[in-house]
């Protein structure tokens, strides 16, 4: 039982080890409590020795795979959003039909601008001029 567990643990751990590269960096702690981390010796105290920090850096293949997963997720999210919008539009259409309302006109690619004309104001009548009517009759 124990060798089986060790073999299983090794199989699970191997891909994790293969996916990243372990690197080291020289770090110098400066400041009053050593909270200022630098990659070069502290100014004013050349006797300070630096310590090393180990960190994992993903391999190029892992970075590429993560980028591809991100793009695939973004495409899937866009497709799901478009499907949701289409479903909501269909639901609005069905609801309008069930209420006996006319469905809204198909949306154009750009919103249409409607200009409303102001109401016409009646012009005041011009006073009647008798001499103008007499001269027109001649």
TrEMBL record:
Which keywords has UniProt assigned to this entry? Signal
Record bears the keyword Signal: yes
Instruction: Please list where the region (Disordered) is annotated.
Output: 32-138
**Biased segments, Basic and acidic residues type:** 64-73
Where does the secretion signal sit in this chain? 1-18
Q: Give start-end positions of Low complexity composition bias.
A: 74-84
Compositionally biased tracts (Basic residues): 117-127
Provide the coiled-coil residue spans.
none
Q: Does the keyword DNA damage belong to this entry?
A: no
Report the protein name in the record.
Answer: DUF4124 domain-containing protein
The taxonomic lineage of its organism, from the top, reads: Bacteria, Pseudomonadati, Pseudomonadota, Betaproteobacteria, Burkholderiales
């Amino acid at each position: 039982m124990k060798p089986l567990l060790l073999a299983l643990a090794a199989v699970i751990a191997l891909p994790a080890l293969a996916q990243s590269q372990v690197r080291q960096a020289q770090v110098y702690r400066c400041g009053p409590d050593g909270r200022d981390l630098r990659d070069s010796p502290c100014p004013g105290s050349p006797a300070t020795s630096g310590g090393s920090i180990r960190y994992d850096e993903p391999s190029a293949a892992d970075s590429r795979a993560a980028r591809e997963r991100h793009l695939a997720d973004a495409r899937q999210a866009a497709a799901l959003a478009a499907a949701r919008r289409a479903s909501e539009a269909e639901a609005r259409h069905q609801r309008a039909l069930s209420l006996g309302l006319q469905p809204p006109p198909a949306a154009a690619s750009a919103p249409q601008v409607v200009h409303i004309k102001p109401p016409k104001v009646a012009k005041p009548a011009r006073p009647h001029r008798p001499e103008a009517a007499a001269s027109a009759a001649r």
